[in-house]
Amino acid sequence: MIDIPHIVAHRGASIEAPENTIAAFRVAGARGAKWIECDVTLSADDKCVLIHDDTLERTTNGTGPIHHSDFDALRNLDAGGWFSDIYKGERIPSLKDTLETLYFMDMGANLEIKPSGCDPVRLCEEVIKELRISKTVPPILISSFDDTAVAHMRKHMPDLPCGWLLETLPKNWKAEYARLGASAIHIDHKALTPVSAAEIVDAGVPLVCYTINDVERAKELFSWGVTSVITDDPAKLLMAFPRRPFAAHR
Question: Which residue ranges does the record assign to the GP-PDE domain (predicted)?
Fold first, then answer.
């Protein structure tokens, strides 16, 4: 399992810059973050691009489903003006641009495979292709809510760690985790309790929580043995936790 830092910047430093943009990744790096989390999906012409939503309205000046626009059309959109005039003209990044940027910044990436309406297997295949042909690949951890994507990535890139993304912890989580061949559990922190956290940690499973912007909540989660927290505000959490905290219950 790759060594995930204790603080991961959610879609970059998304409290300070427009999410899932190169600007947000650079701000995260400037604040001391060593890893970012970002969302990867496909354009209409099967190019890997970074955007969270199924549609374009919230984070760009475009409209409609992402998968109805080809790569050139997506790249012509403004993905920063909605956040601030400072970032007007910021573009939707390609996966290629992202890998190169993070590589030269000496940062790692949690790439969330986000089908959002496209075929998850096709998306996985394009991500795999990009990772294999790129000469500038930073440390990578894959994650997805889509079980098909998790299983496909583990089958075709078995050396690449892959997190199983969850909103709640299923009762049969151990069997499902083993079936998928996942490398970590990524879960909404609100769904976690000291008992469920201990169950996961004691099973030797790395535990990543999203999305935590409160220092006291992060402190509590670390005391339960959580490996990493994903945050919109890496500057604040890194100031509070410059080093990986000790897991008190262990």
Answer: 5-241
Structural domain of residue 190, as residue ranges?
7-55+93-240
Q: Which helix H or strand E contains 209, and what residues bound it? A: strand 207-210
Question: Which residues are catalytic, by number?
Answer: 10, 52
| Contact (Cβ atoms closer than 8 angstroms) between residue 99 and residue 128 | no
Model confidence pLDDT, tens digit, residues 104-135: 999 999 999 999 889 999 999 999 999 999 99
Evaluated on CA atoms 232, 113, 149, 137, the torsion sign reads negative
pLDDT recorded at residue 246: 77
Query: Each residue of 148-179: b (16+ CB within 10 Å) or e?
Result: bbbbbbbeebeebbbbbbbeebeeebeeebee
What's the total number of domains in the chain?
1
